[in-house]
Amino acid sequence: MKIPSFYFGIGKKPVEKGTIHKEKEEFKDAHWVLKHAHSGKFYEFTLEMVDFPNINIKNIGNLEETGLTFENNRISGIPTAHNMYHLDIEFFHTEDKENTDVKRVQLLVNIDPKDLWKNIPSDKDADFYKEDEVSFQGEFSDKKMVVASKRGRSHAHEGKFREDDFAINKLPLDWNIISISDGAGSAVMAREGSRLATVSVNHFFSSAEVVSEIENNVNIIYTSEDVKKEQEAKENVIRLLYEGVLYVHHTLEKSASENKFSTNDLHATLVFSLVKKFNFGYVILSFGVGDCPINLINTDFSEVKLLNIMDVGEFSGGTRFITMKEIFNDHIVSRFGITCVKDFSYLVLMTDGIYDPKFLTENKLEDTGSWKTFFKDLNGDNDDLAKVDFINDTEIAQQLLHWTDFWSRGNHDDRTLAIIY
Question: What total of structural domains would you count in the chain?
Fold first, then answer.
């Protein structure tokens, strides 16, 4: 006679049908609330089965319409649309694999706040038409550069134009220039004001004569041992930068007159940096009017410098614009910067559409912790999992443009960000 294996304790005693039914019913009756999802944002939720060791989930019905997938008791993915979805959890008992049962649960996918905003194209037939978004990637001195400029949701919702702008040029003698401008929301032709501001300042410094004079004086500043000559050279560089800024102002005044605008209709901020690598280091000449920062981050991320004054704090009366005559007073000298460093990891320029939601206050612009958080965000540590890859950077311009579409409640202004790396 063959002795059953369970007699020796090495077999498993069959589970009674009543027990199987009871455990399946307990699983069906358990109250499960799935974490709410948001359309367009990554979602994951693990179905904990600790209390139901003999229940296996085979599949989840109706899940495909959500855009999510199921694997290893984990629901994940990016929901495609907001809705209340009724999901059928198909399961079986480990001792009764042939008989599948269903447990119904609900998954609420909330609407993405972005979906509440319209994206109406701007009028291509309007005067001074400007693209709603643009990006650039290329060389800048012996480093690389990426720039993205995107129309804000407030403008897109009403079919208005992007009022930010930027311009990049290679200059004589291996100098480079990047300029960024933010047109004032109250100015009816702000889009043209910002374009003219960036284009005209870059044009001024495209002169071989101007750049040669800047270069000669920069060499004196950093190689001369004569303190008086060094001071004179600094004054000469600032004078040339001043002439460039004045040229922009006159260009805007002229355009306003020719088009029968008020100069105020072209109100725009302006920041720019001229950069060249010398044998003694990188020289960065800078200027700023308005609330757009220029930041220099050193090689080991231990120090961040703000290279321009921001029109906040002592300038609490409101943002200044390159169109305003009052900026050309005795204090304008403080708006210019001459910086020399052996090397740097990033040189960053941005408009307030980036600065306001990501840094909040001016004092965080020189806080290394805030900048580390900012670059973690750029590296994909954000709700959209949008990553800007500075290493494998073949598609970095499109990545940065996608990143600038981040959601920040109450911050829907145009966004422009330039990074030299």
Answer: 2
Residue 112's pLDDT is what? 82
Nearest C-alpha neighbor of 346 from the set 395, 285, 418: 418
Q: How large is the average pLDDT for residues 262-268? A: 97
What's the domain range around 324? 117-420
**Pairwise CA distance, residues 163 & 122, whole Å:** 12
DSSP 3-state of 257: helix
* Listed residues 112, 143, 175: the one ending a domain: 112
Same domain as 414, residue 295:
yes
112-147 residue pLDDT tens: 888 889 999 999 999 999 999 999 999 999 999 999
Q: Specify the pTM.
A: 0.80
* Strand pairing category for 96-110 and 37-38: parallel
- Backbone phi, psi, residue 98, to 5°: -80, -25
Q: Is the pLDDT of residue 13 over 60?
A: no
The residue among 116, 120, 47, 42 whose CA lies nearest residue 79 is 42
- What value does the CA radius of gyration of the chain take, rounded to a whole number of Å? 30
Angle at alpha carbon of residue 357, lines to 355 and 362, rounded to 5°: 45
Tokens (6 digits) for 162: 């992007």
Q: Computed from CA positions of residues 326, 129, 403, 170, in that sequence, does the dihedral angle turn out positive or negative?
A: negative
